[in-house]
Amino acid sequence: MNETNYWDSPFVYMHDLLTWVCVCFGIAFAITHSKVFSKVREKANSLHPMLGYFTGCPMCMGFWVGLGLGFFWVSPTGTFVLDGFFGLTTSWLLFCLSWKLALKDGEV
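User: That's the sequence. What structure does it adopt?
Assistant: Structure tokens below.
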């Protein structure tokens, strides 16, 4: 009987990659747009206006969250700096998609 190794499947890697992208986007979106982190954004803005800008920018925050996830959790690219750019790209694309879907509701 021919056994297949579950861990050699490309779908395992795609599942891990999709999980990483969702975690990166979720953290970046929560920091930049949620009410829970509004005090953090206000405090960052009071410390320095550029720091306030970075905590409100989903693309900037996606880079730093991707960098942190690649360094501390798991690295999808093998280089944590590339993880930052991968997090930036996926967070920005998902943010644009969510923004476009929100505009269809007419409430933004």
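The mean pLDDT is 86.
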